[in-house]
Specification:
Elements (H helix, E strand, L loop, with lengths): L13 H4 L7 E4 L10 H9 L4 E5 L8 H5 L7 E2 L10 E4 L13 H9 L3 E4 L9 H10 L3 E3 L19 E7 L6 H14 L4 E4 L3 H7 L13 H11 L5 E4 L11 H11 L3 E7 L4 E2 L2 E5 L3 H13 L5 E8 L5 H15 L3 E2 L7 H11 L1
Parallel strand pairs: 1-2, 1-4, 2-3, 4-5, 5-6, 7-9, 7-10, 8-9, 10-13, 13-14
Antiparallel strand pairs: 11-12
């Protein structure tokens, strides 16, 4: 069966529900078309390929998305908005440190607004709060959609979630290691086995791809657990549910988000995601990452204070390894932890799908 990434939910705003109505999107990555910064654009190219009309980056103009990002095939990279054929949305395709719009991008954003092209942003800096952008949008009729903007104001109620929906949560040893991709690929693998599996997005990119979710890292701290719990309730009609993870339980800046999400979604099983060769916390180069064995112990202990839970496998991001190194990495980690290990993009998610089905049964 087809994978149903696009799903409506009463916990999301009307703006979210319309995200999947855009089919001529221009991804803005101007001067920032790197895996480190452009992960939002890369995921849109991977999972909503047919809805992307072009990528805007004057430094890469004339190339294709496939050449620049490894995804998107022949989608053109253009140097100016005028080169796009009747776009219906300009989507901010980067997730920069600090979450602010590059100052150099203001001109193209205003140009898009003036052309009645809607703006979609997952930045922490809300476009709708910018007086110049808001005035221009009011004059042209363009919409400013800030995906991280939310109105979550309730704590978790802590009552039992449905036992008929098996919940799998992707967690990680750091930020930006592939937790969203692992969840989406595992969902796809389960659906291919004939299992009704859903995907619950907790970050801006997942919301842009699926059209539903809660931006958990922009929820007031007291309401993170409750927001995660309510998100799960919106998807309990599925036999299985993949819940996108955020941050890391030992991260010096984002551990609170990770723990609140872990307790709020009360998973039955966890998939540990990590990037091979990464040794220090992203953005905190002097802080070493915790060993996977210690992190697995911590995740299982903290999750089980709410609901019995264990790690059933690992999703490795092996982008920096060649084939021989990848084979050796899988063998070493699997032997050390006595768990299945796979790269969901490099070889598919079957090993983790098998582990999930076996653990549930």
């Amino acid at each position: 069966p087809a994978v149903a990434f696009h799903e409506s939910s009463s916990t999301i705003s009307d703006s979210y529900k319309q995200l999947t109505d855009y089919h001529r999107i221009v991804l803005l990555t101007d001067g920032c078309s790197s895996p480190f910064l452009a992960k939002t654009a890369i995921s849109m190219l991977r999972y909503r390929t047919a809805d992307v009309a072009a990528v805007l980056d004057h430094e890469q103009s004339g190339k294709t998305a496939g050449e620049v990002f490894g995804f998107g095939g022949a989608i053109p990279v253009i140097g100016s908005l005028e080169e796009a054929a009747n776009p219906d949305a300009l989507l901010i395709g980067i997730a920069p440190p600090g979450g602010r719009l590059p100052e150099a991008w203001r001109a193209v954003v205003l140009q898009a607004i003036g052309a009645k092209v809607d703006l979609i942003s997952g930045l922490h800096q809300f476009l709708c709060n910018d007086a110049e952008f808001a005035a221009a949008a009011k004059a042209s009729g363009a919409r400013l959609i800030d995906v991280r903007k939310n109105s979550e104001t309730e704590t978790g109620i802590g009552s039992g979630l449905s036992p008929d929906c098996f919940r799998i949560h992707t967690v990680g040893h750091d930020c930006s290691v592939g937790k969203m991709v692992a969840a989406m690929e595992i969902q796809r693998g389960l659906c291919q086995r004939g299992i009704d599996a859903g995907f619950a997005a907790t970050g801006q990119t997942g919301i842009m791809v699926s059209g539903a979710g809660i931006p958990i890292d922009c929820v007031v701290a007291d309401f993170v657990n409750g927001a995660a719990e309510r998100l799960v309730r919106q998807f309990e009609h599925h036999e299985m549910l993949l819940i996108e993870g955020q941050g890391c339980i030992t991260h010096p800046a984002y551990s609170g988000v990770t723990l609140g999400l872990l307790h709020g979604c009360a998973p039955d099983a966890l998939v540990m995601c990590y990037e091979a060769t990464r040794t220090h916390v992203k953005g905190f180069g002097d802080i070493p990452l915790q060993p996977l064995s210690r992190l697995i112990m911590l995740y299982e202990q903290m999750a089980s204070t709410r609901h019995p839970c264990r790690v059933i496998g690992l999703a490795v991001n092996s982008r920096l390894l060649d084939d021989t190194e990848f084979t050796e990495e899988k063998k070493r980690v699997s032997s050390e932890l006595d768990l299945p290990v796979c790269d969901v993009l490099r070889e598919g998610p079957d090993a983790l799908v098998d582990a999930i089905i076996s653990y549930r049964n």
